[in-house]
Specification:
- There is one protein chain.
- The chain is mostly helical.
- The chain has helices at residues 2-7, 10-36, 40-76, 80-107, 109-115, 123-135, 137-151, 157-179, 189-212, 229-263, 265-301, 305-341, 345-377, 381-406, 410-435, 437-444.
Length: 460
C-alpha cells in the first residue's frame, strides 16, 4: 500500500506530466515556426484545422477520460481486474470511434472547410491538411486511450519517455519533409501531414507495448474482444458529461476561430501564434491539474476523503504560482517571441496587444482546471458539464461574437470574453468543491475498518 501511495503522490504524478506537456508545447512551437516558413496562410490553416480536430477528439477522449478516473478509483479500492477491463475497453471503443472520424475527415475535407466558413483562398491548403492529418485521427484515438490508461495506473513516466522520443523524431521529420533536408523530399505542408501520422503510428506501437504490462496480468490480443456492459455503463455515466464539457470548450474555440476567420487571415494567424505562446504559461498548471485528478480519484477510491479534499487546494496553490510566473515572463519577452514566427508588423502588433490580457487570463484558467478536475475525479461530472454549457455557450461564444464581430472590438473583445468565461467556471467549481457533496457521500458510505474495502458511489 505504501508503494502505491508513493506512486500516486502529487509530485510523482505531476513532474512527468509536466515534462511531457512541455515537450508537446515545444513541438507545437517548432511546428508553428516551421510552418510559418511556408506562409502565414499555412499557419492559419493549421491553427483552424487543429481546432476542428480538437473538437472531434472529444468523441473518443470521453471514453478514455471516464475510464481513466475509474481505473484510478478501482486501483485505490484494490480491484485491479476491474481496472484492467476498463482500460482494455477504453482502447477498443476509442479506436472504433477514431476510425469513423478518420473516414469522414479524409473524404469530406472540402465540405467541412466550407461549412465552417474558412476563407476560399485557404481551401487548397485545407484540403491537404484536413484530409491527411484528419485521416490519421484513429491513431490519435489509440494514443489518447493508451496514454490515459497508463497514466491512471500511476505510471506517468512511461508516456513521458515516449513523448520525449516521439517529439525528437517529429522535429527531424518535419524539418526534412517541409524543407527537403537530410535526404527527404521537399513536400511543404504535405510533409507536415506525413510527419504527424508517422509519429502517431510510432507512438501507438510504443504505448501498446507499455500498456500490455501495466496491470498484474499481461494484456493479450483476445482481451480486446472482451466487453463488460456493467463497467462500460460506469464509463459512460462519468464520461458522457465530461465529453459534453470538453465538447463545449473545443466547439467554443472552433466558433471563436470561425469568428476570427471572419475578421481576416491575419487575425487568425495572430491568434494561432498567441495560442502557441500561451501554452507555455499554463503547461505546469495543467500538469498539476491532471496529476491531482489522478490522485484524488485514487484517494476517493480508498475513501480517504480529507486527503482528497486538501489535495485540490495544494495543486491549485502550486499551479497559480507557476502560471503567474510564466505569464509574466511571456509578457516581458513576448514581442521577441512573436518575431520568431512572423515579420508581418500587423500580426505582431495584434499579438503584443494580447500579452497583458494573458496575465489576467492564466490565473482564471488555473482555478478552473484544478477545481474542475477535482470534481471530475470524484464523479461530479454533471456539475462541470452544466456550468460549461452555460458559460461557454453564453460568455465564450455568444459574447465573443457580439463584442468581437458585432461591435467591432476584434481580438481584444474576444479575449475579454475568454477571460470572463474562465473565472466564472472556476469560481463555480470552487463553490461546489467547498460544499463536499461527493466527499460527504463517500464518508457516509464508508465500510468500518476490518470489514473490507468499499467503492464510493459515483452515481449522479
Amino acid at each position: 500500500m505504501k508503494s502505491l501511495d508513493r506512486k500516486f503522490s502529487l509530485w510523482t504524478l505531476a513532474w512527468p506530466v509536466f515534462i511531457e506537456v512541455l515537450l508537446q508545447t515545444m513541438l507545437g512551437t517548432v511546428d508553428t515556426v516551421m510552418v510559418s516558413r511556408i506562409s502565414d496562410d499555412a499557419v492559419a490553416v493549421v491553427g483552424f484545422s487543429n481546432q476542428l480536430f480538437n473538437a472531434l477528439t472529444t468523441l473518443f477522449t470521453t471514453i478514455a477520460a471516464g475510464a481513466g478516473i475509474l481505473i484510478a478509483q478501482r486501483l485505490g479500492s484494490q480491484r485491479p481486474e476491474d481496472a484492467r477491463t476498463l482500460a482494455v475497453m477504453s482502447v477498443t471503443v476509442s479506436t472504433a470511434i477514431g476510425l469513423l472520424i478518420s473516414f469522414v475527415l479524409f473524404f469530406e475535407s472540402r465540405s467541412i472547410a466550407m461549412l465552417l466558413g474558412l476563407s476560399e483562398e485557404l481551401w487548397p491548403l485545407s484540403d491537404t491538411y484536413i484530409s491527411y492529418v484528419g485521416g490519421g485521427m484513429f491513431l490519435a484515438a489509440m494514443t489518447a486511450a493508451l496514454g490515459t490508461a497508463i497514466r491512471n495506473t500511476g505510471n506517468t513516466r512511461g508516456p513521458m519517455y515516449t513523448g520525449i522520443f516521439i517529439n525528437l523524431v517529429h522535429i527531424v521529420l518535419n524539418y526534412g519533409l517541409i524543407f527537403g533536408k537530410i535526404g527527404f523530399p521537399e513536400w511543404g505542408l504535405t510533409g507536415v501531414t506525413v510527419s504527424d501520422n508517422a509519429c502517431r503510428l510510432l507512438s501507438v506501437f510504443i504505448l501498446l507495448y507499455m500498456f500490455r504490462h501495466s496491470f498484474e496480468r499481461t494484456i493479450r490480443l483476445p482481451d480486446y474482444l472482451r466487453f463488460d456492459l456493467k463497467l462500460f455503463k460506469e464509463i459512460l455515466r462519468i464520461g458522457w458529461p465530461m465529453g459534453v464539457n470538453m465538447s463545449c470548450w473545443v466547439f467554443s474555440q472552433l466558433a471563436i476561430y470561425s469568428f476570427l476567420a471572419m475578421l481576416g487571415a491575419k487575425e487568425l494567424a495572430a491568434r494561432t501564434y498567441m495560442n502557441t505562446l500561451e501554452s507555455f504559461c499554463f503547461m505546469l498548471g495543467y500538469a498539476f491539474a491532471l496529476a491531482v485528478q489522478i490522485r484524488i480519484a485514487y484517494l476517493y477510491g480508498e475513501s480517504r476523503t480529507k486527503e482528497a479534499y486538501a489535495a485540490a487546494y495544494r495543486a491549485l496553490a502550486f499551479g497559480l504560482l507557476l502560471v503567474l510566473a510564466n505569464a509574466l515572463l511571456l509578457y516581458l519577452i513576448g514581442r521577441q517571441m512573436l518575431g520568431l514566427f512572423t515579420s508581418d508588423p500587423e500580426i505582431v502588433a495584434m499579438g503584443v496587444s494580447l500579452l497583458g490580457l494573458n496575465l489576467v487570463l492564466q490565473p482564471g484558467k488555473m482555478l478552473n482546471m484544478a477545481l474542475g478536475n477535482a470534481l471530475n475525479a470524484v464523479g461530479d461530472t454533471r456539475f462541470t458539464m452544466y456550468i460549461s454549457l452555460g458559460s461557454l455557450g453564453i460568455i465564450a461564444t455568444f459574447c465573443s461574437y457580439w463584442l468581437g464581430v458585432g461591435l467591432g472590438w476584434g481580438l481584444i473583445g474576444i479575449y475579454w470574453c475568454m477571460i470572463a468565461d474562465e473565472y466564472v467556471r472556476g469560481a463555480l467549481s470552487l463553490w461546489r468543491w467547498r460544499g463536499k457533496k461527493y466527499l460527504n457521500r463517500a464518508e457516509s458510505n464508508r465500510v468500518p475498518a476490518g470489514s473490507g474495502h468499499s467503492m464510493p458511489s459515483v452515481s449522479v
